[in-house]
Structures are given as C-alpha cells and as structure tokens.
TrEMBL record:
Name of encoding gene: ybeY
Organism taxonomic ancestry: Bacteria, Bacillati, Bacillota, Clostridia, Lachnospirales
Keywords carried by this UniProt record: Cytoplasm, Endonuclease, Hydrolase, Metal-binding, Nuclease, Ribosome biogenesis, rRNA processing, Zinc
Cofactor annotation: Zn(2+)
Family: Belongs to the endoribonuclease YbeY family.
Protein name: Endoribonuclease YbeY
Chief localization: cytoplasm
Length: 165
C-alpha cells in the first residue's frame, strides 16, 4: 500500500495526520476487501485551494470539505472483479499497485466541522478519509438508500480503528 500525502495548507493540523490518514486508508481497503495492494494520493489544502478544484472539476463555486477523484470504474460498488482485464488503466506499471485515486481535504473544514459537530479534529479527519475511500471504491450517496449504506460503512470503518465521536 502506498499513501502519498501532500500538505499544501498554511494552517497546521495539530494531530498526527499522516498516521490517521494511513490507518483509515488501510482499514477502508480491508473493509471493502480490496484484493490488491493499492495506492492513494491525499492532498491537504485550504478552503481557497479546494474551492478552486471544486470549481474547476465540478463547476461548483464554493469550498467543500473533501473531494474524491476515483481512478477505477466500478460496475458494482466495492466489486474489484474485472479490473485486471485492463491492467494498463488501473495498475501502476512500476509497482503493480491498483491506482485507486486522489483525495483532497480542506484543513480549514476539518477544524470548522470538528468544532461544529463537537468532536475532535482526529475524528473529523478520519471521517473524511473514510468517506472518500468509499467513493474511491465505487460507493456514492446520490440516493437515500446509497447514503444510508455509505453512512453505515463509514461508521464501521471508523469504529474498527477506534475513531469515535
């Protein structure tokens, strides 16, 4: 497993963010039973940076807490079967790892939302990574049923690593 973390924000998180991110990425991959070693890229930015990415990539003119950019096309969420059929699309030729995708997180939103929801920055960061890892594994929350399923999966991933409200 390769987790690349880039810290672009000026504001610092006062938590062991690298450890939290790696723990949650690893747990999420175990949870969805990913059969491959995977690589994930995580960028920690500020509201201005995520706002620009949100505008450029999604046409939404405001900052958000997290953005997910999956590299894999899943017919069924969490179903990794079939990815080997086109290895040149999904696997890093140098490492053989599954290129799962990119996660972008606003450090400012981590701090704001931790305060708003009355839990720690550790828990908020872990939640955003778990949420995004499910997106990278093909899950979405456009419909109520999908949203409820994703919420349950997020809760279970966080619980398995001890990240509680």
């Amino acid at each position: 497993m390769t987790v690349t973390i880039e810290y672009e924000a000026e504001e610092r998180l006062e938590v062991p963010y690298e450890e939290i991110i790696r723990n949650v990425v690893e747990e999420a991959l175990d949870y969805v039973e990913c059969p491959y070693d995977a690589e994930v890229n995580v960028v920690l930015t500020d509201n201005e940076g995520i706002h620009q990415i949100n505008l450029d990539m999604r046409g939404i003119d405001r900052p958000t807490d997290v953005l997910s950019f999956p590299m894999c096309d899943f017919e069924t969420p969490g179903d990794f079967d079939g990815l080997e059929e086109t290895p040149e699309e999904y696997f890093n030729p140098d490492t053989g790892e599954l290129m799962l995708g990119d996660i972008v997180i606003s450090v400012e939103k981590v701090k704001e939302q931790a305060e708003k929801f009355g839990h720690s920055e550790t828990r908020e960061l872990a939640f955003l990574v778990a949420h995004s890892m499910l997106h990278l594994s093909g899950y979405d929350h456009m419909e109520d049923e999908e949203r409820l399923d994703m919420e349950e999966k997020q809760r279970e991933i966080l619980e398995r690593r001890g990240y509680r409200r």
